[in-house]
Amino acid sequence: MSLHAVILAGGYGSRMMPLTTRTPKHLLPIDDEPVIAHQLRRLGAAGVASVTLATAHHAEAFLPALGHGERFGLHLRYTREPEPRGTGGALKHACAGLTLHPDDALVVINGDLLSDHDLAAHVRAHAHAGAPLATIHARPVDDASAFGLLHLDGDRITRFEEKPAGAPAGFVNAGTYVVSPSLLDLIPAGEVVSLERDVFPRAVALDEGVRVYREDARFADIGTPAALLAANLAWARDHVPSDRPNATSVLLGAQVAPTARVERCLVMPGAQIGADAVLTDSVVGPGCVIGDGAHLEGCVLGDGARVSPGLRLADAVLAVDERR
Average pLDDT in the 236-244 region? Predict the structure, then answer.
């Protein structure tokens, strides 16, 4: 069996605006590396040798940032959708150039997902289950109303229920899939198709079926500025180097005046924070300039935004290059 992977990275990142005006959300930072670089390292550690990155929006940005995968210990190839085709259509398009044998396996990951689950064990569970059409990472939650609830008979999925009312507890789809090449036969070429809403529900009725790999592991959907900030703060807490004792913020190549106070913030490269400025719970994009004595709370600043000295802002969103 050969193990390949496809990362679905074609989304527009609308919920992440204005940070995605110039940068795809998958290349936004978690500490000093893009979100997708953390995924590539996990795939390499799990034994994946070949990864296809399925891109669309800002597709030209990925190769300069990631190269061909050498530093992650794998080979990285790129595909670009001519138009949005959903997660299923993107997977079909990405696999068109691969030579897959019936006993191979494909790891499929949404490109804005961070998960600490044991991916190698997930792959083994797929093989031990007789290589069903798909094996989905399932994690337990107390409230499934914001997720896709999985109805189970043992480890076999019998039904998918999207965002059920009534806040039931149960196992939900955690966004990492190990699939058999035969799943691709259920995806019509050139059409807009969702894995979650179209392909997997159809697959549960077939003999090979869809299984779950259960693991309660840390999981984050990096789809909003708040989620990006939370993921960075969590990373800082877990990986504080000896020369960065204050992990209340993540400051990536920014210039911060000694008298400024920055708490629970993500400040991206090239940003400048002036004397006596106070920033809390904010995301500051690349190249922003925060004037002396400015106060920001719960703000999101797009690339190159500028805040005047002494200005106070709360829960504000500044567009790319906006001046206040």
Answer: 66
pTM (predicted TM-score): 0.91
Look-up of token digits 């990096």: 222
Q: Give the span between the Cα atoms of 33 and 25, in whole angstroms.
A: 12
**Measured distance CA(284)–CA(164) in Å, rounded:** 35
Q: Final residue of a domain: which of 221, 256, 291? A: 221
List the one residue out of 21, 37, 26 whose CA is nearest residue 221.
Answer: 26
pLDDT in tens, 116-142: 999 999 999 999 999 999 999 999 999
Give long-range contacts, CB 8 A cutoff, 24+ apart: 278-281. 281/229
The verdict on residue 324 lying in a domain is no
| Cα–Cα distance measured from residue 15 to residue 224, given in angstroms and rounded to the nearest whole number | 5
pLDDT the model gives residue 76: 96
**Looking at the domain assignment, is residue 212 inside a domain?**
yes
